[in-house]
Design a protein that fits this description.
The chain has one domain (about 1-95). About 35% of the residues lie in helices and about 15% in strands. The chain is built from 3 helices and 3 strands. A 3-stranded antiparallel beta sheet has the order 1-2-3, covered by helices on one side. The longest helix is centred in the middle third of the chain and has 17 residues, at about 55-70. The protein is globular.
Amino acid sequence: MNRGFGKQPKDETTTILGDGEMFCGIVQNPVTQRWQTWVSLHGVDINCLTAHNKREDADNVARLIVKAWEEGLEDQGQVSAFLKSLPTDGLVDPLPQDVVVRLSRKIRRK
């Protein structure tokens, strides 16, 4: 699942996404085989938030993330509390660079 919000920026040298935009998705880590939720706030960054044994669990968490983004979080405290509340099946492992590049290219095409 990928979801973008807002309008596209004119300058793509430092960011692809504009103010108020976010992309969120799931990807299977090729090393751990766990499904990880990820977000990108600029289009050039991929930040994994949770790891799941089941694809459906990762998809449900991604939907929670998108819903929270759409509804808005008031301050850093709410953001922190929300992130801590997200269910996960374990530690999030870094994605290999080729996977990060692939996801970044996918965002550019949206």
